[in-house]
Amino acid sequence: SPLRGVVRVRKTEVSNEEKIGEGAFGQVSRADVFPYGDVAIKWIKPEHIAKHSDAFLVEADILANLNHPNIVRMLGVVTSPPAGDNAGDCNGGAATGVSDPVVGIVTEFVGNGTLGQVVRSPSGRLSTRQCARIALQVALGMAYLHSQSPAIVHFDLKPENVLIQGEGENMVAKIADFGLSKPKHGKYVSCPMPRGTLPYMAPEVVFGNGEVSEKVDVYSMGVTLWQLHTGEEPFMRLSNQEILMGLESGTLHLPIPSTCDPEWRSLVETCMDPNPDNRPSFRELATQLRGILNNKARTVNT
Ligand code: ATP
């Protein structure tokens, strides 16, 4: 059954709540929840419960089974008795809140903003070494996600969905927002409609036959690697229409500066290969990023 063994937090146990973000179906708050202390809670908006509570449960259920240093840690779910329900009237479940609808997902609070914010801030510009360290962490988290059985395809990997904990050499990246994620049973996962964020979407997500593989996340990683290196937003000067046309005709290219490390350039290019089978796995990517990181260490030491 979904969310088996997951901690249920009553709404009344949440205190010192402060809104920190807003999404399509939810709102994200920072709050205190005993005995965890500082947490983030993603709430489903009341007006979306009827239509989207199933998707919200899927997101919670995916996160509940993940345990990796580079993936945001889920601590529990918030349940709330439906309005007008006299809790405890009909069954024991209602009294303990176990059968109450899930209205919030509680995760560790990751305090230093998103990777997107870090890349944008002029003071936060990352050195090549820092880029490689963060990219390696993201690759390891993604490799873990893809190594689950069934593999979990994220579908919305981008710097805005990577949270940052700590600063400088202590920065840790944590992949977040599993709202579009899907388990892949078999060779493909069904993707009848495009899902994700356009500049990061692989061509087969938009123009494919509705069946894609986990390699869609590797394409998104390629765009993310480019963004880490340049500090720019991808395809900034293009309209959505122009991005779509370029993606369809295979003429869409991110300009890689000539000063770019050749190894980094080749990572961006192979990750964004139009043919998913030519893209590396996150495991291979992690090995290559580790190589880049070690080369950089040598350059600094000698
Ligand atoms: P979107 O529609 O933008 O994808 P969403 O509703 O799917 O948003 P998230 O992307 O999970 O929600 O979170 C929205 C924002 O809330 C994040 O960009 C981040 O700034 C903040 N946030 C989410 N989770 C955490 C966390 N665990 N710790 C700190 N901040 C968080």
From TrEMBL:
Domain spans labelled Protein kinase: 14-293
Lineage: Eukaryota, Viridiplantae, Chlorophyta, core chlorophytes, Chlorophyceae
Residues of the full protein shown: 394 to 695 of 1004
Protein name (database record): non-specific serine/threonine protein kinase
Origin: domain of life: Eukaryota
Record-listed ATP binding positions: K42
UniProt organism field: Volvox africanus
